[in-house]
Amino acid sequence: MLDDADIEQAAAGAVFGAFANAGQICMSTERIIVDNAVAEAFIPLLARRAAALPAALTGPVVDMNTIARCNALIDDALAKGARLLTGGKANDTHMSPTLLDGVTREMRLWREESFGPVKAIIRVHSEEEALAVANDSEYGLSAAVYSRDSARAWNVAQRLHTGICHINGPTVHDEAQMPFGGCKASGYGRFGGRAGIAEFTELRWITIQTQPRELPF
Known about the structure:
By secondary structure, the protein is α/β, with parallel strands linked by helices. 36% of the residues lie in helices and 15% in strands. It is built from 8 helices and 8 strands, in the order H-E-H-H-H-E-E-H-E-H-E-E-H-E-E-H. It has helices spanning 7-19, 36-51, 55-58, 64-79, 108-111, 127-135, 150-159, 193-198; strands at residues 31-35, 83-86, 98-101, 118-124, 139-140, 142-145, 164-167, 183-184. The strands form 3 sheets. Strands 1-4-3-2 form a 4-stranded mixed sheet, with helices on both faces. It has a two-stranded antiparallel sheet with strand order 5-8. A two-stranded parallel sheet has the order 6-7. Strand 6 (142-145), helix 7 (150-159) and strand 7 form a beta-alpha-beta unit. The longest helix is centred in the N-terminal third of the chain and has 16 residues, at 36-51. It is elongated and about 80 Å long. The N and C termini lie far apart (62 Å).
């Protein structure tokens, strides 16, 4: 989220991207990177939206292994200085949307995906720092950039190391005709539309000489 973003739009997109299906989507938002210039206005709004989500919309996680992983990520972050804004640990498969503010590099949440409803908020001080943080990940499937300046957002999107990037929209988005896929540890190849056909196609080069030509020897 850049410093000129519409904070209402960004909060709505982040909450949907983070907590749809309890965060158990390959495209789910894991880290919410926000410019410090707007953090004090944005983060409380984000937390209120997350806390207000009814359980019927987010749903349970798949099993207790997910709960154990998410609880461990929460414990690690809190022990290293993060602040719990909403949600928290669970003892059954219904875990509330959980936001941790002040996540830093030494915390597991910086690098590990929860694949559940536990999300990191990372504050930055510039567009360049936001890019550096976003690209400091072994994963590269889906990203989102929020800004009122579409040209600025486009320039940022071009520099993100992800297969997919949505400008002013959530990371959770799919269309059957679009080339879906990531980079780095998120895999390789694409599916959807022509890109899906291309993955099963051998590209060939065939020439034909219609008249004699001079050769070097």
